[in-house]
């Protein structure tokens, strides 16, 4: 049985030439975190030792293990996913670093599928580098969706300020409109609503749906998607009891305090939602893949090659990603428990004999 007070957190190393190893080590440097989790880093102890030494974190103890089942509590456990010689080129794109990132991801995914770890936190990867190393996906979201029997994966960005989900993710702007349809908006909103309930403990979430065109299409003068696609989707969602509202023009919505009135915001495309989110929540923001049977989180930033190896990268988003993974896992457990039927249907309690009832009471 999973120990909710000490979850086994799988952490993929990401690109070893980026800031991934640094922010992982920094986020685990306060030993108090080890009372809450048992970290299992998938990657390279050589790469981690390199950055540990460079940052002067000699007191940080790393324990190499062969498998997650051997991970020890109160230790930072490391699983080597590559037996080749490791070459670290800080700040440079390298197919070899992409290979390690992919192997780490694959091994962690395998382990979470068997229950060897409880949650996954992924450090940043370079999508182009990983694709050169054989990773045939636009990003983490699409990869985990492919492993989950076609689950309706949803990219969700979370912080203390807001929660934003995306209808389309890694799609060229010129192709966004053709990916926006009523069925897709309904599906994404339903996935979003269920996630807000199960993963974040919001009982009756209110969701703001953003428009696609400026001024919500200006009654068709700047686009017809609002009238023909988005509004019909919102109306259908309301008919099914889902509290979806809009469509709201994104400039006016974010330019006012309207976002404070909603539990979640559904954005039509990547930069519409993420530009605002990162401007307001970059230090603490977390990328969460909702709609999956597993829990996967990630920092909301990239590899940051330009500052790799300089020791200046902030670990705040990585630490937030670790804690959000824990919170979501526990929230799901509580939700599942709350939905259990307390009545034993197979063996209902025996009815009392009629004679035992006080006189004057009628049968129900």
Concise account of the structure shown:
The chain is α/β, with parallel strands linked by helices. The protein has eleven helices and twelve strands. The chain has helices spanning 20-27, 45-54, 95-114, 127-132, 140-146, 173-179, 182-198, 225-239, 250-255, 270-281, 316-338; strands spanning 7-12, 37-43, 62-64, 76-80, 119-122, 154-158, 163-166, 206-210, 243-248, 264-267, 286-290, 296-299.
Kindly describe this structure.
This protein has about 375 residues and is an alpha/beta fold. It folds into 2 domains: about 1-150 and about 290-335, Isopropylmalate Dehydrogenase; about 150-290, Isopropylmalate Dehydrogenase. Helix content is about 35%, strand content about 15%. It is built from 11 helices and 12 strands. The protein has helices spanning about 20-25, 45-55, 95-115, 125-130, 140-145, 175-180, 180-200, 225-240, 250-255, 270-280, 315-340, and strands at about 5-10, 35-45, 60-65, 75-80, 120, 155-160, 165, 205-210, 245-250, 265, 285-290, 295-300. Strands 3-4-2-1-5-12-11-6-7-10-8-9 form a 12-stranded mixed beta sheet, with helices on both faces. Strand 8 (about 205-210), helix 8 (about 225-240) and strand 9 form a beta-alpha-beta unit.
